[in-house]
Amino acid sequence: MYKMNQYETPLFDALKEYVNRDTLPFHVPGHKKGVGIDKEFKDFIGENPFIIDVTVFKLVDSLQHPPGPIQNAQELVADAYGSEASFFSIHGTSGAIQAMILAVVNDGDKIIVPRNVHKSVTSGIILSGAVPVFMEPEIDKKLGIAHGVTPETVEKTLKENPDAKAVLIINPTYYGVATDIKKIADTVHSYDIP
Questions:
Q1: What's the CA gap between 41 and 144, in Å, rounded?
Q2: 41-74 burial, b if ≥16 CB within 10 A, otherwise e?
Q3: Which of the ends of the chain has fewer CB neighbours closer than 10 A, N or C?
Q4: Which residues contact 171 (CB under 8 A, 6 or more apart)?
Q5: In this structure, is residue 2 part of a structural domain?
Q6: pLDDT digits (tens, 9 = 90+) for 49-99
């Protein structure tokens, strides 16, 4: 199933090597391995989050152009998910969503999205200049909450918008409901949308 050894941990190994070197940090972040952190807070969460909080240098690598452990870790993730590539983000899910949208659509392009998207999707659409085409999610009348969109809804929307450049799906929803993402992906790919 996997082409790579999924038990390897290149980035974690590099961080542990950094810690074991007992270096004096003349780099950001300014807490210097937790020295400047409130004792009560540090006692609560421990020291490890601070001693591995490092910036760009040769041993640990760089997100901008990773030739070492970060690149190896991203390749392992891509292998695990069966994708061509994987990119780590330090900007959380919202930043990654916006980057994804900006990489795929441009000013005036149509992007198909569920109506119950997170504000990061809306922000990404605004930043890109794309035109949203909203799909109505299934509504759970008993609980009064919106679920995901069905594969049928996606196909209907694609037929109505054959010029769409992208489809973005929330899966699972904020309420934890998963849709048939495989069927949706196959449908989207059949329209030559990556």
A1: 39
A2: ebeeeeeeebbbebeeeeebbeeeebeebbbbbb
A3: N
A4: 148, 178, 179, 181
A5: no
A6: 988 888 777 788 888 888 999 999 999 999 999 999 999 988 888 999 999
| Same-domain check for residues 70 and 97 | no
Structure tokens at 183: 């069927």
Q: Which two tokens stand for residue 168?
A: 């973005």
Contact call for residues 37 and 50 (beta carbons, < 8 A): yes
Number of alpha carbons in the 13 Å side-chain half-sphere of residue 34: 16
Q: Say if residue 74 is in the same domain as residue 114.
A: no
Residue whose pair of structure tokens reads 């992007």 in the numeric block? 111
Q: How far is CA 11 from CA 2, 26, 74, in A?
A: 19, 21, 9
> Rounded to the nearest 10 degrees, how much is the dihedral formed by the CA atoms of 172, 173, 178, 182?
-60
Q: Which two tokens stand for residue 105?
A: 């659509």
pLDDT tens-digit series, residues 6-63: 999 999 999 999 889 877 887 777 778 888 889 999 999 999 998 888 877 778 888 8
* pTM for the full predicted model: 0.76
Q: With CA atoms as reference, report the closest residue to 11 among 90, 84, 99.
A: 90
Residues 28 and 60 reside in one and the same domain: yes
- Return the CATH number at 164: 3.40.640.10
Whole-number pLDDT of residue 70: 93
Domain that holds residue 114: 93-190
Among 39, 61, 81, which residue terminates a domain?
81
